[in-house]
UniProtKB/TrEMBL annotation:
SUPFAM superfamilies: Rhodanese/Cell cycle control phosphatase (SSF52821). It comes from Chthoniobacter flavus Ellin428. This is Rhodanese domain protein. Residues 51-137 form the Rhodanese domain. The lineage of its organism: Bacteria, Pseudomonadati, Verrucomicrobiota, Spartobacteria, Chthoniobacterales. PANTHER family: FAD-DEPENDENT OXIDOREDUCTASE, PYRIDINE NUCLEOTIDE-DISULPHIDE OXIDOREDUCTASE. InterPro entries: GlpE_sulfurtransferase, Rhodanese-like_dom, Rhodanese-like_dom_sf. It comes from the Bacteria.
Amino acid sequence: MIRALRQLAIVLGIALLPALISGAVQLKWNAEVPSKKDEVTIAMVHNNWSDHVLWVDARTRAKYDHAHIPEAVLLNEDEWNSLVAKFLDAWDPDVPVVVYCDGGSCDASHAIADRMRSELKIEKVYVLKGGWGAWSGK
């Protein structure tokens, strides 16, 4: 009986190892591959556009004031009307716009990107997958 339990534990352990490795690879892959057509990753931004990106922070002013991507422009839903002029001053039609918010569950960046496309008619607008956390490593 003990021998059978030991053999069962070994078989389960052998089966569990590839499952754990596969799960870890899948999690890493999901973090690096955009899930929506307008999303980009940090690697995609660095590889495709280098430093020629206009970063837009869609978070609250308090979070922006606490920390943000260098030279990012604040543009959020709550202050859209008062901030859009500053954004347009910084915007260059030849430079892609990448919008970010807090992270995976934050929809503010998609809302701002959609609004830029519909109201401002800007086509090269993308959303940073993982948001501020992807940039800051948190």
